[in-house]
Design goal:
Elements lengths: L15 H8 L4 E3 L5 E2 L8 E3 L3
Antiparallel strand pairs: 1-2, 1-3
Bound molecules: zinc ion (ZN).
Length: 51
């Protein structure tokens, strides 16, 4: 899984474990949809939350 989480809604239920592993310690938030993720690459418009 290396796609943007913002576009993964359809496969979320099937891949819940791997999804959680990408968002369990979020550092970035998506400016467009408000989703959070550990890595910027997993968001369509990610920005760092703190620091
Ligand atoms: Zn997004």
């Amino acid at each position: 899984m290396s796609k943007e989480l913002c576009k993964l809604k359809k496969s979320l239920k099937k891949n819940m474990k791997s999804y959680v592993s990408l968002v369990d310690a979020p550092n970035f938030v998506c400016k467009k949809c408000g989703r959070v993720a550990n890595a910027k690459k997993n968001l369509c418009d990610g920005v760092k939350m703190r620091g």
